[in-house]
Amino acid sequence: MRNFVILSGCSGGGKSTLLAELGRRGHLIVEEPGRRIVAEALAGDGATLPWVDMAAFARRAIEMALADRKAMCAQTGLVFFDRGLLDAIAGLAHATGNATLPREALTCRFNRQVFMTPPWPAIYRNDPERRHGLEDGIAEYERLMAFYPRLGYSPVVLPKTDVAARADFVLTALGA
């Protein structure tokens, strides 16, 4: 779906801030499954925390991302996803070592352009839901930069600039 746009990239690179700005400008947004899963797991038994069981976390992220995507199917305007389905699939492949892609990776399509936040040490911060260091975020970024082209997507690296300029960049690239 051309109107479904993925924001991906390095943890702590400003995806959520950009998503909020796009929402402020009137676009539909879908928050990252990972942060919602961590909150859910911390309130429950903790079994799907990424630092407890990365594969269980990724499977839950796939389930949640599929539900998010389904909930947005009737929308005709731009819908911005903070990470989402394909990042979860990449995470599961990394966690399990299984490179076989599930059917959803090929059938649930998004806009060909995937906007990637590059590693940006100046803004990277840990928080209760992001316990890993910048080095892990950089490794994840490199895996995603290799993963998306395998599925026919074009990663577009976002400039390291203020959030308004980043939002302008994304919308201009999309012709919006």
From TrEMBL:
NadR/Ttd14 AAA domain span: 5-166
Domain of life from the UniProt record: Bacteria
Pfam families, alphabetized: AAA_28
Protein name (Swiss-Prot/TrEMBL): ATPase
Organism: Martelella endophytica
